[in-house]
Amino acid sequence: MSDAFLVLKSGSCAWGRCLFCGYGRIQGELLSLEGFREKLDGFFKSLDSRVDHVKVYGSGSFLDEKQVSGDLRAYFIERCLAEGVKKVTVESRPEFISREKIREFRGLELEVATGLEIACDEILDRISKGFHLSDFEKAVSILHEEQALVRTYLLVNLPFVKNLKESLEESVNYALKYSDSIVLINLLPHGHTPLFRMWLSGVWRFLSREEFHNLAGRYESHPKIELDVETFRFVPLFPRELRENLSGVGERYLTHPHFEVWQDYILRWYRPPSGKKTLLFLPCSYTKPYSRSRTHRGIINVLIDYKGIHEVMLSNAGVVPREFEDYYPFNSYDWDESKETGEIKERYIGVTKERIIRYLQTHGGHYRRVLCFLGYESESFKALREACNGLGMECKNLLSREREGKRVLQSGEALEDLRYGVENEAGKV
Asked: What is the pTM of this model?
């Protein structure tokens, strides 16, 4: 059966208070019948071939009259039937499921997906889900009596759960009694949510891909169960109201929670680019993003022909792959070296060393070689040298030892060192 996915932005979730859900907090413009017709007609015209199954995702409830009116639903059903669609999947909270609405879909195989999340009323209350198991069961009864299918979403790593494995087993066994299919979802932090703040404070942590599969992998072969390790492309996107002024020197600006959660993400979720097998550690810069600084413009100009190099910056903000340089907080901090004391320098070296060690322990196997282009007297180079020595890894500095000066990496001689080193160590494309 061929599937097509319709993302419908109309209105907003009537509840919108779930602890973890950023989608439910999105305030979309309510579609008029004319606007909906235009969108749906465009959707079907865009398809390369006829589809049997249309799945609708809309950040709320397709069966909520205030989000998708009866006229919109009627047109959707009419167009699906006219296009030869056999099955439709829509999402809805239990309170919007009624016999009358389900009967509207006659002629189509209807599947209704509901985010149950967990089979525990106590946790449902704590995550502010807004319904209980009894409400779910009543909705399921209506759906099955009207010959519709039930699809249930379960979140495997909710907060407040004492034993994730036991809780998941209980929820799966419960959902199997009522569901025609189940999706086990790895909960990842959504920006505008209380859960994101819980991640920042260290009260809750998401599961890495490996941790998720260790927990839920035993259900992978079950005919009714699907695993969803990444429901959206996860990058820590901080809402503007959470962003802070990160200009300063000292402990707060080394181990700030906003830096720490990014380092957590880079270690447990991020994967280096597949085609870049040479790791090149570089300095940070006062100008943000780094690529706009004079130092980095020169470096980028040298590296333009070397596609296999992965550029990673070292700074008080942590280990920063080039692809994240324009994300907050990496584009919004300032560390004034003139205000460093001897004690602060030692702390910088210690923190940066540990971050490098964790990065190399996690991702080192991806790279064939490790290089750097750093001033020999810089704290970043000292931290890198100590980290690599501790791991027994070789890291060659492409800067000649005879180069000196405050802005040494901007000089033509230093950039020639870089060009020569990359040519010999990494090879030209």
From this structure: 0.92
